[in-house]
Amino acid sequence: MSAKPRSMTAGARNVLRSNDSASLWNCTLSPGWTDDESEILRKALMKFGIGNWAKIIESGCLPGKTNAQMNLQLQRLLGQQSTAEFAGLHIDPKVIGAKNSLIQGSHIKRKNNCIVNTGGKLSRDELKKKVIANKSAYELPESEWKNIELPKIEDPIMLLGQKKQELTQLKAQLEKVQQSIAKIKASHPDHIERIKLEALRSPTSSTPSTPDTPSTPEPTSIRDSVDTPNTDDDLAMVRALQDEENELYGNAMSEDEEDDEDFTFLKKRRVTRK
Question: Model confidence over 61-114: pLDDT tens digits?
Fold first, then answer.
């Protein structure tokens, strides 16, 4: 168990809890809040009301923030530990904070500029009277707090999940392309080596050719090319194979046409002889 802060008083409450405000116990700011996030919380409290954490979380303006974290930040905005007297009110917490910062006296105890409760617990009627008084003094007009616009921030955890899903889909597509390339290689074993050599001999923009001193690269086996695929070489090979297939198909079609012409000519000669 962690050591107790020196400023903590003795008694039954002399125990550290996970949701305790560090600013109220040992005069240090609670971590995890930026100025922008604090301003968003301020506007959200004005729009939805003090303590309406469910609406704030549902709005998505502060993803990842818990009720306890927002409540502790509210205490720093108000400048006081007690928040019940403002429950449900559409007020600007910084207005209360500015007022509390001016309160002085020997009866006021502060920890990190937050006034700590020193009196007894308020009864239900006393608390109700305070809420009514604060509403009369600090409540914003409905037309003002209803029109407050809050940013819609996407949860980084959800974004990470979406990126992982997209990566999985891209990997599946890559595997299909690699399988197609492997099938093409297997179906054209006689042409693979020649096409690769032609691709290696052809000049590229990054490596200019030297016609005076031509170099003949060493042939690479088909097995090596399958083990360590190169996307550019594979694409060039696929295109070359496609061109060759088109050429073979065109030659076959022309040969069939020539055979038909020869057959027609012979048939005509036979008819003439008769």
Answer: 998 899 999 999 999 999 999 899 999 999 999 999 999 989 888 888 888 778
Instruction: Decide: 46 and 134 in contact? Cβ < 8 Å.
Output: no
Joined together, the tokens standing for residue 119 give 């009196």
- Tell me the C-alpha to C-alpha distance, in Å, between residue 167 and each of 156, 158, 163, 228, 272: 16, 14, 6, 21, 73
Return the minimum-mean-pLDDT range out of 77-91, 173-187, 213-227.
213-227
Per-residue pLDDT tens digits for 121-137: 888 999 999 999 999 99
